[in-house]
Specification:
By secondary structure, this protein is of the alpha+beta class. It has a single domain, classed as Rifampin ADP-ribosyltransferase domain (ADP-ribosylation fold, Alpha-Beta Barrel). Helices cover 18% and strands 21% of the residues. The longest helix is centred in the C-terminal third of the chain and has 16 residues. The chain starts with 18 loop residues before the first strand and ends in an 8-residue tail after the last helix. The N terminus is likely disordered.
Length: 145
């Protein structure tokens, strides 16, 4: 197999990294997830960024903590443009980026769905929600732009 190389990226490959996006939104393959919609977190304000991760565990947290009563979903997504480390986690809560969490204001294309996954225990979710509530009381929202 021949790999196309460019000056910009000498290691360019025909294979794209696939990421995860956890949510309660009902999406279909081919749909675009775009910034500017109401956030799944915090006060539900218009989201300047959308978020994705390279780890299933972080996507599960995203689905479990998303607002709303719909079913938790984990989608496989491909970014359509530049992504950057999620500053809400990177170096603020964890050194480096161990959750491999990223954000972008470019759309993500839904390319699949993970239909079999194991969520966190109700105790773990409750502990996380209590921690997020404490941050909120301190004036720190879950998502900072």
């Amino acid at each position: 197999m021949e790999v196309n190389k460019t000056e910009e990226n000498p290691y360019q490959s025909p294979f794209a990294q696939t990421y995860f996006h956890g949510t309660k939104a009902d999406l279909k393959i081919g749909d675009l997830i775009i910034a500017g919609k109401n956030s799944n977190y915090g006060l539900g304000n218009s989201a300047k960024y959308i978020y994705l991760t390279a780890t299933l565990d972080a996507a599960i947290w995203g689905a479990e903590l998303a607002l709303g009563a719909r079913r938790e979903r984990i989608y496989l997504v491909e970014p359509t443009g530049f992504i950057e480390d999620d500053p809400n986690l990177t170096d603020k809560k964890f050194h480096g980026n161990p959750t491999k969490s990223y954000r972008s204001n470019n759309p993500f294309k839904v390319v699949g769905e993970v239909t079999v996954w194991k969520g966190h225990t109700s105790e773990q979710i409750q502990t996380m929600k209590i921690g997020l509530e404490k941050l909120k009381e301190q004036g720190i929202e879950a998502i900072e732009d």
